[in-house]
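Work Package 3 (structural annotation) set out to generate three-dimensional models for the target panel prioritized at the project kickoff. During this period the team completed the workflow that converts sequence records into discrete structure tokens, so that structures can be stored uniformly alongside our sequence database. As a representative example, we reproduce one entry of 71 residues exactly as it appears in the project archive.
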Amino acid sequence: MANLEHKHAVLKLYFEGEVTEDGKMRTKSKSYRNLRANVTADQLETVAVSLSSFSDSVYIGAEKIETMQVI
């Protein structure tokens, strides 16, 4: 029987960028690596909002990107 093992996780924050010539909004992102495997959604939200306050750009949202390994 195969099992999944946590390999690594990344927290990615998204911010508003510049507007292109055709009027579309570009986004910027900042990644933070080495998240613990057992971090909760509430903890991630707290960290994301805290980190976004250091940016001059408007905070859009965040996502957790997790890589698992089949063993």
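The beta strands are 4-19, 25-33, 59-70.
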